[in-house]
Specification:
Layout lengths: L3 E4 L5 H12 L3 E6 L9 E4 L5 H15 L4 E4 L14 H29 L2 E6 L2 H5 L5 H21 L4 E8 L5 H4 L3 H9 L9 H11 L11 E4 L8
Parallel strand pairs: 1-2, 1-4, 2-3, 4-5, 5-6, 6-7
């Protein structure tokens, strides 16, 4: 059965691969984006997750086209990396507002429709950094760790209505962001990964798509690492 799926930040990188996986499964997929162009074959909705009115307008557009959102993937995120003594209030606030509060806004709005349907999937894209920590990423790590507490609380709050809430925590992934790293830095990172390579965006997307499927109906409150063993489940 074709479902209404919404992926925030779904026009590039991991978000795009996730959106494409749901399209391949036959779902009606909408993606939010702030710049660039949405992928073909999907409903593109301009949305800034730091703005509550923008989120409300985006959901109204998706619901009009595809019906209530049945699978939400909260993927939109930003980085402002720097050492803590150099980190400004704005560096901190921008990352937390987008990655954590933005995810709260879209999850809250999606839950409204899911409660009426008495079913739904909330999937949050975190990071191995949220579990292991990373020098120079105090803001990003805190925002990604916060998603775990949020998802587990939602799992308890919404479970009686057949709504699951889970977290996927990717490690290093082959994206435009990692492609520009110097070769020695890439080698250094790969040396820490038991599988000795980065993940592909498709490998992350496959896990997310599984969590959105009937096969994962009894999985909720879980944090699933897709990190080649880097975090060893932590």
């Amino acid at each position: 059965m074709s479902r209404s799926v919404l992926v925030t930040g779904g026009n590039r990188g991991i978000g795009r691969a996730i959106a494409e996986a749901f399209v391949s499964a036959g779902d009606q997929v909408a993606v939010t984006y702030r710049s660039g162009e949405p992928p073909e074959g999907m409903l593109g909705v301009r949305c800034d997750v730091t703005d509550a009115d923008s989120v409300e307008a985006a959901f109204a557009e998706v619901e009009a086209a595809h019906g209530p959102v049945e699978v939400l993937v909260a993927n939109a995120g930003v980085t402002r990396d720097t050492l803590v003594l150099r980190m400004s209030e704005d560096d901190w606030a921008t990352v937390l507002e987008t990655n954590l509060t933005g995810s709260f806004r879209v999850a809250k709005r999606a839950a409204k429709g899911m409660l009426r349907l008495r079913r739904g999937r909330l999937i949050f894209i975190s990071s191995v950094v949220g579990l292991l920590g990373s020098a120079g990423q105090v803001n990003y790590a805190a925002s990604k760790a916060g998603l775990v507490g949020m998802a587990r609380s939602l799992a308890r709050e919404l479970g009686s209505r057949s709504i699951t809430a889970n977290v996927v925590a990717p490690g290093f992934v082959e994206t435009e962001m990692t492609a520009v790293l110097p070769e020695e830095k890439k080698a250094e990172y790969k040396a820490q990964i038991p599988l000795g390579r980065y993940a592909t965006t498709e490998e992350v997307a496959a896990v997310v798509q599984w969590l959105g499927s009937d096969a994962a109906a009894y999985v909720t409150g879980a944090v699933i690492p897709v990190d080649g063993g880097l975090g060893m489940g932590h």
